[in-house]
Amino acid sequence: MLRVARKHFLSKGFRDAKMDEIALAAGISKRTLYLWHASKADLFRACMAQGGLEFPVLAPEDGANVQEALARFALALASRLSEPAHLEMGRLLLKDQQEFAEFMPEARRVYALHLIEPLAQWLRRNGLEMEGKTGRTRLFVAMVLAFVHEALLLGADDPGQEEKEQQIELAVNIFMRGAHTR
Fold first, then answer.
1. Taking a C-beta distance cutoff of 8 angstroms, is the pair 10, 22 a contact?
2. What is the average pLDDT across 30-50?
3. 35 is in which domain, residue-wise?
4. Which of 29, 109, 118, 179 pairs with 42 at a CA distance of 20 to 30 A?
């Protein structure tokens, strides 16, 4: 149901999405939809939370070769977030952030809970992030997702797999060199 709702929000926008159309497309009654989600805003928040569950994660055992594990993670993250559905959700949030500002705290919460905090914990276990901090983690993610941000903010084209891999390798190398200069 969340997949159907997310697709509907992406095609119509939040304002023009209709709960009865979402229920029909999901094959459930509108009443059932409202039993699960009290409002359209709650359903949209659930769609954002579901998107956060799709972020890749690093397992504790991925620390054998930290640089290689980070590179694999970074490529998986960049690939996931440059998929059309994720880019469209980002564009929708950017477009509607003034009118529907109440969604931005949830977007930040999902980002922190499902991406930044798990990565920061993994980096701490491997001596690459300071205890109780996420600054290095956030900088790493920003470097890795630079081309995704350019697509969202500037309408840039996808750079292609080879260029993505080169940018990610550079980001990982810069991060690894800088992480050892505390």
1. no
2. 94
3. 1-44
4. 118
- Neighbouring CB atoms inside 10 A of 148's CB total 22
Burial class (CB in 10 A: 0-12, 13-18, 19+), 31: exposed
Distance CA 74, CA 36 (A): 34
CB 75 within 8 A of CB 164: yes
Q: At 114, which helix (H) or strand (E)?
A: none
Instruction: List phi, psi (to 5°) of 78.
Output: -65, -40
Residue that has been written with the tokens 């009865």 in this structure: 20
**Position 130 pLDDT exceeds 90:** yes
What CA–CA distance (Å, rounded) separates 136 from 179?
Answer: 8
Least Cα distance to 64 among 126, 118, 153 occurs for 126
For residues 23 and 35, give the distance between their C-alpha atoms in angstroms, rounded to a whole number: 12
Yes or no: say if 134 and 120 are a contact pair by the CB < 8 Å rule.
yes
**pLDDT given at position 181:** 57
Domain check: are 58 and 136 in the same one?
yes
Instruction: Please list, in sequence order, all residues whose beta carbon lies within 8 angstroms of the beta carbon of residue 70, skipping any fewer than 6 positions away.
Output: 58, 140, 172, 175, 176
pTM, to two decimals: 0.88
Residue 40: pLDDT band with limits 50, 70, 90: very high
CATH code, 12: 1.10.10.60
